[in-house]
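Changelog-adjacent note: as of this version, every example in the card shows the full chain rather than a window. The one below runs 120 residues end to end.
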Amino acid sequence: YKFGGNSIMGIDCSAYVQKVYSLIGITIPRSARLQFEEGEIVDRDSLSIGDLVFFRTYASFPSHVGIYLGNDLFIHASSKGKKVSINSLKTPYYFKRFIGGKRFIIDNAEIEITKQLHEG
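Full-length structure tokens:
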């Protein structure tokens, strides 16, 4: 993990989700703040695999983002431990900072591509 990073030397949360989405041909903005301005709004109870989840961590605007994995889990580039991590949306830290989800993946074909990439 590297704040503002976008290379093999380190990557931040928004660059991480931007790169993952680019693997399936979806272009999204670079920063969490700008990513939050696009996509379809999704409630916490309606999240699907591949949706982006946003948090207010160090600022009043969306400052952290991850990718929803299902079962209240999300993957993100985390400053804690300086690595890509999987955490629960129910963890008190993330629960109270969650501000919403956004959907950029519309059809199941894109979700299937994502599953295939994940499975190797």
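Structural remarks: The two ends are 23 Å apart (CA to CA).
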